[in-house]
Specification:
alpha/beta; Rossmann fold; 9 helices; SGNH/GDSL hydrolase family protein; SGNH_hydro_sf
């Protein structure tokens, strides 16, 4: 009787193990098959422009920009190339939270070695739920949970990784709409401090430490926005940057303030910059980053020939 019970328990355990192995195998195969074969939207990549750092093949990157829509609306890598000659890319996405930013940072630094990583600070204040880190971990390690709707795109030819994707704007989003802002006195003096949530501080610390461990200098930058930025937020980031010993550049005030005309340089009443505002920010910031961090000027280097080609294309597109 005892032997029969033992055999029964062993049978249940072996059945459970077999089911687990089958499920794990199916997840592994479907996750591999569902991965986009290139970092482009048509290939099914989630936030394709945010993943494009893995597609930079012609010369290395000098600067990475990470953040939400404030970042991809303000930082133009091609404008910066034309001004200062360093290679950069924006890995930003709409409503980006720090757990996702940390994923994109690790993904980017696996294939590139930038000297500087700029973290736009609006996302530092963006709250996320306690479940977000766990969900992010699951999506990072079992891709089928992130690319579950990509099966409709999978074809036989898709099973070999493609290598021909290169978004020429390198993460910047061009928008020429003009909707003037009304609240132009958004940076009034005050000692009030908007404290960054503790969980956000922890993720920012992870990102800062990861940058340093990979030889990159982390820099916090606040882009001009009458809707999303304020003096209390400036004070909060300034305090946090001192604690973490990270450089902080606020383009809304002080000696680094960019001369934004809120009648003409915003596309949605001060929330985001338009092309005109982004051009001003990119020119000012490119000069500052080049000077402060000794970034190289690759103009004329044949390794970066595609940058010159794309700059011509960009200028034709924006009418410069």
């Amino acid at each position: 009787m005892r032997n029969q019970k033992l055999r029964a328990r062993l049978g249940v355990a072996l059945t459970a193990l077999a089911v687990f192995l089958v499920v794990a195998g199916l997840l592994a195969v479907t996750s591999w098959a569902s991965l986009p074969k290139a970092d482009a939207h048509e290939e099914g990549t989630v936030d394709a422009t945010a993943h494009d750092a893995t597609g930079e093949k012609n010369g290395g990157l000098d600067v990475l920009f990470i953040g939400d829509s404030e970042a991809y609306s303000a930082f133009s890598p091609l404008e910066m190339w034309g001004e200062s000659g360093f290679a950069s890319r924006v890995i930003a996405s709409h409503g980006q939270r720090l757990p996702y930013g940390y994923t994109l940072l690790r993904e980017a630094l696996a294939t590139s070695s930038p000297r500087v990583v700029v973290i736009e600070t609006n996302s530092v204040y963006s709250s996320f739920s306690t479940l977000d880190p766990s969900l992010r971990f699951l999506q990072d390690h079992v891709p089928i949970f992130e690319y579950h709707d990509r099966w409709k795109r999978i074809l036989t030819r898709d099973l070999a990784k493609s290598d021909n994707s290169r978004a020429y704007l390198r993460g910047f989003v061009v928008n020429t709409e003009v909707k003037p802002a009304r609240n132009v006195d958004y940076m009034a003096r005050t000692r009030e401090v908007s404290v960054v949530p503790r969980e956000n501080q922890e993720y920012l610390r992870l990102m800062v430490d990861y940058c340093r461990a990979h030889g990159a200098t982390p820099v916090l930058v606040s882009t001009p926005s009458t809707v999303n930025w304020s003096t209390p937020r400036h004070n909060g980031i300034a305090r946090l940057s001192r604690r973490m010993r990270v450089d902080y550049i606020d383009l809304n005030r002080g000696r680094h303030k960019v001369g934004i005309d809120w009648r003409t340089d915003t596309r949605d009443r001060g929330d985001h910059l338009n092309l005109s505002g982004a051009t001003k920010v990119s020119r000012e910031l490119s000069a500052l980053l080049s000077r402060r961090y000794g970034l190289p000027d690759h103009r004329g280097d044949p390794t970066y020939a595609t940058w010159e080609e794309d700059l011509d294309r960009y200028r034709d597109a924006v009418g410069e």
